[in-house]
Design brief:
The structure holds two protein chains of two kinds.
Chain A lengths: L3 E4 L2 E5 L4 E7 L5 E7 L6 E6 L5 E4 L2 E5 L5 E6 L8 E8 L7 E3 L3 E6 L1
Parallel strand pairs in A: 2-11
Antiparallel strand pairs in A: 1-3, 3-8, 4-5, 4-9, 6-7, 7-8, 9-10, 9-11
Chain B lengths: L3 E4 L2 E4 L5 E7 L5 E8 L3 E8 L6 E2 L7 E4 L5 E5 L8 E8 L8 E2 L3 E5 L1
Parallel strand pairs in B: 2-11
Antiparallel strand pairs in B: 1-3, 3-8, 4-5, 4-9, 5-6, 7-8, 9-10, 9-11
The chains are: A mainly beta, B mainly beta.
């Protein structure tokens, strides 16, 4: 089946630094989603992308839908302590296909 | 609104025991899902229900059964638990199937000894 590879697997950064992570697929998707999971909670949607090449921002977060439809990128600017958590990408192939394929996650830790 | 509510939050089972994980949503969503989360594996779909009265297998359905009791509730049953089913289980729901926001519950941490 389809697999989504996220990198890096983990990041250790200092508060105020910018963060970049990406997600690559072995096949195309028509929707890319980015979720964040806080400890002990379920994932929460951050950004949804519906069109190849699309660049969408949500506050300090910016995500891009790769032009090949096989990748997506998430950037966080000027990180703050509440950005700590696990970030997941997810892809959906097409309408009527219920399956949302999730990436393996990027764990973000902020060093005091 | 409570959103998606899962019970229990934690559970320890012995191999061979059975149990049912409960999930309810109060957002009038059509679609409901069960995922499991394992370290380094992301979230994998176990079963889903596109609407009341229908259920379908996801990526990893073996060892599980589900029931869409009504529009609000979608339960996951382990008939004979195995150590390989030790995981964190998430229920989720969304209004439709295309590009709709997926809302997750807070998870059930299950350990099978």
């Amino acid at each position: 089946g389809q697999q989504l590879n996220q990198s890096p697997q983990s990041m250790f950064i200092q508060e105020g630094e910018d963060v970049s992570m990406n997600c690559t697929s072995s096949s195309i998707f028509n929707t890319w989603l980015w979720y964040k999971q806080d400890p002990g909670e379920g994932p929460v949607l951050l950004i949804a992308l519906y069109k190849a090449g699309e660049l969408t921002s949500n506050g300090r977060l910016t995500a891009q839908f790769g032009i090949t439809r096989k990748d997506s990128f998430l950037n966080i600017s000027a990180s703050i302590p509440s950005d700590v958590g696990i970030y997941f990408c997810a892809g959906q192939l097409d309408f009527g296909n219920e399956k949302l394929t999730f990436g393996t996650g990027t764990r973000l830790t902020i060093i005091p | 609104n409570a959103g998606v509510t899962q019970t229990p939050k934690f559970q320890v089972l012995k191999t061979g025991q059975s149990m049912t994980l409960q999930c309810a949503q109060d957002m009038n969503h059509n679609s409901m899902y069960w995922y499991r989360q394992d370290p380094g594996m992301g979230l994998r779909l176990i079963y889903y229900s596109a609407s009341e009265g229908t259920t379908d297998k996801g990526e990893v359905p073996n060892g599980y059964n589900v029931s869409r009791l009504n529009k609000r509730e979608f339960s996951l049953r382990l008939e004979s638990a195995a150590p390989s089913q030790t995981s964190v289980y998430f229920c989720a729901s969304r209004a439709g199937t295309w590009g709709e926001k997926l809302f997750f519950g807070s998870g059930t941490q299950l350990s099978v000894l």
